[in-house]
From TrEMBL:
<feature type="binding site">
    <location>
        <position position="100"/>
    </location>
    <ligand>
        <name>Mg(2+) 1</name>
    </ligand>
</feature>
<feature type="binding site">
    <location>
        <position position="239"/>
    </location>
    <ligand>
        <name>substrate</name>
    </ligand>
</feature>
<comment type="similarity">
    <text>Belongs to the FBPase class 1 family.</text>
</comment>
<dbReference type="InterPro" id="IPR000146">
    <property type="entry name" value="FBPase_class-1"/>
</dbReference>
<feature type="binding site">
    <location>
        <position position="245"/>
    </location>
    <ligand>
        <name>Mg(2+) 2</name>
    </ligand>
</feature>
<dbReference type="InterPro" id="IPR023079">
    <property type="entry name" value="SBPase"/>
</dbReference>
<keyword id="KW-0479">Metal-binding</keyword>
<dbReference type="GO" id="GO:0042132">
    <property type="term" value="F:fructose 1,6-bisphosphate 1-phosphatase activity"/>
</dbReference>
<dbReference type="Pfam" id="PF18913">
    <property type="entry name" value="FBPase_C"/>
</dbReference>
<dbReference type="Pfam" id="PF00316">
    <property type="entry name" value="FBPase"/>
</dbReference>
<feature type="binding site">
    <location>
        <position position="101"/>
    </location>
    <ligand>
        <name>Mg(2+) 2</name>
    </ligand>
</feature>
<dbReference type="GO" id="GO:0006094">
    <property type="term" value="P:gluconeogenesis"/>
</dbReference>
<keyword id="KW-0378">Hydrolase</keyword>
<dbReference type="InterPro" id="IPR033391">
    <property type="entry name" value="FBPase_N"/>
</dbReference>
<feature type="binding site">
    <location>
        <position position="98"/>
    </location>
    <ligand>
        <name>Mg(2+) 1</name>
    </ligand>
</feature>
<dbReference type="GO" id="GO:0000287">
    <property type="term" value="F:magnesium ion binding"/>
</dbReference>
<feature type="binding site">
    <location>
        <position position="98"/>
    </location>
    <ligand>
        <name>Mg(2+) 2</name>
    </ligand>
</feature>
Length: 300
């Protein structure tokens, strides 16, 4: 007779399988996305749900990933920043994708990446529903960071889509050295400006801001520090989207021993009822993220 323990172990096995299949699909697709970049640098005609005009490369990456991830047994829903609605592709878990994070870096040939989050819930999900997250970074090498089962791992992806672990149990270094805050400085609220000036006065901290969240977060995971796309005077929710960017990076950085925040609470505690909702994002070493919350609580 099947017991509750059997059901739990079946469930874990099936989540393990879907996670592995999603990673395989993302790693297999990454070299193709990269190869397709040089000829897809122009903007398309239609805006995405966030009111931005994507590049042909964003659309290409989204189509490839939708096809590959949508084919995986156990994936029920595919959603991406480029599509207004979530797509039903089968039955099972929900996968949210930012196909090409930081694609404005394509023209100047700088870093960009692909972000994936797996949720055990219909969309929009909450931070409690996240089961795993990963991102690929198209830099001098192609790497993939994954967070699953309390562990963060870094892989290198080869041109044939195979991938090998190069760092296991990745944790944020204890002594942070880098910081990067997005948005126009003139649009920052006073509390953020004051806090950044404080960070800048610390001789051990260096500015690192590349304009692709995933590249900037990877600096923080590697060297320790803080990345933020903060609340802005004319855009209190900032720019980044909770389902596609906030939850996955919050989950990855927290799993690596760091902290995440929307300015007042962990990103994983944020609840929004719109698939494309935005949130301020602050991730990094706990002491630095605590500093943001302390500054912003002054005006509560
Ligand atoms: O997804 C949006 C994004 O490209 C992020 O990767 C990045 O952090 C941000 O926009 C950059 O915005 P800005 O151009 O305003 O610095």
């Amino acid at each position: 007779m099947a017991t509750d323990d059997d059901a739990t172990s079946d469930r874990v096995n099936s989540v393990d399988r879907v996670f592995k299949k999603v990673l395989d699909a993302v790693a297999k697709t990454a070299p193709e996305i990269r190869e397709g970049l040089p000829t897809r640098r122009a903007k398309v005609e239609t805006e995405n749900p966030s009111g931005e005009t994507p590049l042909a490369a964003d659309v290409y990456a989204d189509e490839l990933l939708c096809e590959r991830i949508g084919d995986i047994e156990g994936v029920g829903t595919y959603a991406s920043e480029e599509r207004p609605e979530a797509q039903t592709v089968g039955s099972g878990l929900s996968v949210c994708v930012d196909p090409l994070d930081g694609s404005s870096n394509l023209k100047p040939n700088n870093t960009m990446g692909t972000i994936v989050a797996i949720y055990d819930s219909p969309l929009p999900a909450t931070g409690d529903d996240i089961l795993a997250a990963a991102y690929v970074l198209f830099g001098p090498t192609m790497t993939m960071i994954t967070a699953y089962d309390d562990t963060v791992t870094e892989y290198v992806i080869q041109d044939d889509g195979t991938y090998q672990a190069i760092r296991v149990d990745v944790t944020l270094p204890d002594d942070p050295t880098v910081y990067g805050f997005g948005g126009r400085v003139a649009d920052w609220v006073d509390e953020i400006t004051e806090y950044v000036r404080e960070i800048e006065s610390d001789p051990s901290m260096k500015l690192r801001y590349g304009g692709a969240m995933i590249g900037d977060v990877n600096q923080v995971l590697t060297y320790g520090g803080i990345f933020a796309y903060p609340t802005l005077a004319d855009a209190p929710e900032g720019k980044l989207r909770i389902q596609f960017e906030g939850y996955p990076v919050g989950y990855i950085v927290e799993t690596a021993g760091g902290a995440s925040s929307d300015g007042h609470q962990s990103l994983l505690a944020v609840e929004k009822d719109d698939l494309h909702a935005r949130t301020p994002v602050y991730v990094g070493n706990e002491s630095l993220v605590d500093g943001v919350e302390a500054h912003l609580s002054d005006d509560d």
